Amino acid sequence: MAYQLLDGKKISEEILTEIAAEVKIIAAKGGKIPHLAAILVGSDGASITYVNNKVKSCERVGFISTLITYDANITEEQLLAKVIEINNDSSIDGLIVQSPLPKHISESKVVQTILPEKDVDGFHPTNFGRLALGLPTYVSATPNGVMEMLKRYEIPTDGKHCVVIGRSNIVGSPMSILMSRNANPGNATVTLCHSRTKDLKYITLQADIIIIALGKAEFLTADMVKEGAVVIDVGITRMVDGTKKSGYRLLGDVKFDEVAEKCSYITPVPGGVGLTTIASLLSNTLKAAKKEVY
Ligand code: GUN
Fold first, then answer.
1. CATH number of the domain where residue 150 is located
2. Are residues 161 and 265 in the same domain?
3. Can you give the residue range of the structural domain that contains 46?
4. How many domains does the chain have?
5. Whole-model pTM?
6. C-alpha dihedral sign at 267, 258, 180, 54
7. Which atom of ligand 1 is nearest to the CA of 121?
8. 121 within domain boundaries
9. Tens digit of pLDDT for each residue in 130-186?
10. Ligand 1, atom 3: nearest CA belongs to which residue?
């Protein structure tokens, strides 16, 4: 089957261009220029890359950004004090604290300390609860990126069987809620699979749409996929590769070459969902500045 690639770069460029145009209008009217603050703790290579890309994208669309970095030995108390300071700073619209955090700091405590109004990652229980109830909220970046991809490629989801693999708080679980809610995209019949699922292949073979977020390189193979399925790969695993300049290559959760042959649409890794996530974060920050949610 001839498959079509879902191009994350194209979608993210589209969204960033739309945001930049809106910032120009806001600036011309003397309105509030969106301002994102990001806190990075420690020196995890992937986290540094992600945060730097977020800051660079802010510049590109005309946002103000503030990057705050700490050594891994900062105390939880010090970090929470900074979060509270930013909560009280009316010049800052959105705050993200990049995860993972060092073991001695409770991520859950940090997330719950961020004001829901500034939680542009959409991780706060209030924002997650609002998502579950279908209220206006900040949808976290990855699930929102997937929804934008489905919407902008006009992929039908109404009445389809969508199998989500992985039940994490930041991807699988919100993904299952978004796909099942009464909206477009949405209105799918959703099966949420996880590590205790029996006979996963039996279930995935019935899927019109598979969204996989496991973090297990090349887990989904061709024998698990129905002819004509839509496959969305959220996984990103770094594999050591001496032939690459960076020293590693990125692998998705899907064995791309063999699965693609059976698909109507499929996302590549890299170049797929990952690129849409920053666009979603900036879109939430714009909403925060415009006070669209709260
Ligand atoms: N670490 C991996 N993904 C994310 C994300 O979307 N937001 C934050 N804050 N940290 C992350």
1. 3.40.50.720
2. yes
3. 30-115
4. 2
5. 0.96
6. negative
7. 7
8. no
9. 999 999 999 999 999 999 999 999 999 999 999 999 999 999 999 999 999 999 999
10. 99
